[in-house]
Design goal:
Order of helices and strands: EEEEHH
Number of domains: 1
Number of helices: 2
Helix content: 40-55%
Distance between the termini: 48 Å
Number of strands: 4
Largest sheet: 4 strands, mixed
Shape: globular
Structural class: alpha+beta
Strand content: 25-35%
Length: 92
């Protein structure tokens, strides 16, 4: 049975759904959470998401893509957070 995770965007009801089914995975962008999703909120939830994936799938060689993927998501989120913070500061 597939595992579904939902990363909720900051200040929005929409987010990113990440589905893992065996060795296959899929992203859905700008969707609403479903009742079966494990939800992680805001950019801070990305590190919790990464820890959850490690808890479920471990650090074996076959799962290195999970670590790389979540690390990349964390880096993108950090850049986005900094960019948005600067925009908000300029508006003040």
């Amino acid at each position: 049975m597939p595992q579904t995770f939902f990363l909720k965007y900051e200040n929005y009801r929409l987010g990113l759904r990440f589905t893992i089914d065996g060795s296959m995975f899929q992203f859905e962008h700008c969707v609403e959470p479903s009742a079966t999703d494990e939800v992680f909120k805001n950019w801070n939830g990305l590190s919790a998401f990464q820890q959850r994936l490690l808890q479920l799938y471990g650090r074996s060689d076959g799962n290195e893509w999970l670590l790389r993927l979540t690390q990349h998501l964390l880096e993108v989120a950090e850049r986005e957070y900094v960019t948005n913070s600067r925009r908000r500061a300029k508006k003040k």
